[in-house]
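@channel sequence for tomorrow's demo:
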Amino acid sequence: MANLTRTQRVLNHIKANIELYYSSLIEVNNYEENKLFWSNVILGSRRGKRYPLRYTFNSIEQRQEFLNEFNKLYPDVPILEER
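structure tokens (generated this afternoon):
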């Protein structure tokens, strides 16, 4: 079994949540707090509830790699940057 990168592990987790809970992707919110880079992936249920999946990254480059791969898989999902 190959070692997965942080990006691959996060994307696998998102895919599993979408398939397991029949959710849809709503948006991705990004922000920086306490020298960590956060991405909140917001899932929506059929009943209208919103469920955030929170991921941290150690560097802006690591988070950008995740966002690039995420955008390839889900090009219609908005990616927001909070200040």
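heads up for whoever presents: The mean pLDDT is 91.
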